[in-house]
Amino acid sequence: MTPTTLTFHKYQGTGNDFVMLDDRNRQFDEHDSRLVRHLCDRHLGIGADGLILLRSHPEYDFEMVYFNADGFLGSMCGNGSRCTVAFAHYLGVIQEKATFQATDGLHEAHIDADGLVHLRMQDVHGQQDVEGHGVFLDTGSPHLIRFMPTSSLVDLNVFAEGRAIRYSELFRDKGTNVNFVETPVAADQPWQVRTYERGVEDETMSCGTGVTAVALAASRRGAVSPVHLRTRGGDLRVSFDARPDGSFTSVYLTGPAVRVFGGAIAL
Ligand SMILES: N[C@H](CCC[C@H](N)C(=O)O)C(=O)O
Predict the structure, then answer these.
(1) Same domain, 143 and 69
(2) Ligand 1: centre distance to CA 199 (Å)
(3) NCBIfam families from the entry (predicted)?
(4) Burial of 109 per CB tally in 10 Å (0-12, 13-18, 19+)
(5) Residue 103 known to bind ligand
(6) Is 141 in a helix, a strand, or coil?
(7) How many angstroms separate the Cα of 13 from the Cα of each of 78, 88, 179, 252?
């Protein structure tokens, strides 16, 4: 029987916002990209950068299935993962610790006494310099990093600049997320990041896999773990161990994850 309303929860992590569905009984049709797009529509639906299904998993606490606002399955989502951990806690699926499956494999996470979610990312193997573009890293999602001159980020047209790179010949087929970064002028200041997201095809307030990629790329430019990053939607922290071979292990993304509201939408 087709339900006439769909119960949802709305979460945000540093302003990267998600429609969250309790899909433990696997009722949601993950091929219904039209419905996902509709639910993420800020005018006609609920409005979000993406939609996430929390599903039961035979071995781990849960599985996270992430869709971009364009309606299609995305790759790993760092802010969305932190929100899903908070949602699992809200539902009583976990206490403070979680293990869960995402598109890039197993993750572990915990919620600290301040409510911040610490999320372990996959190890990252290397980074490539992309001639004329910047540095490319895969932190579960593809990220291009472009380091910018001091004070240039505030007036940057991230939509136009990011879009031009994302649809350039090099990235057109698979797409990429694009992060613009300002190096802090003093060591106690945060690295500032603005991100154009593939699949949302717009600037978002924050991108978790993006700031993770930025922190790792910044470690080649003097940043020391834990790295403090500032997005338009708030602050995040990334810690890691850098290996001599250029890879990174024990990579953690830490930041807030907030339930904003819940409701039911007519279908
Ligand atoms: N906002 C997400 C990234 C989503 C990646 C998505 N845009 C894709 O490339 O499929 C994050 O916090 O990590």
Answers:
(1) no
(2) 8
(3) DapF
(4) buried
(5) no
(6) coil
(7) 9, 15, 17, 15
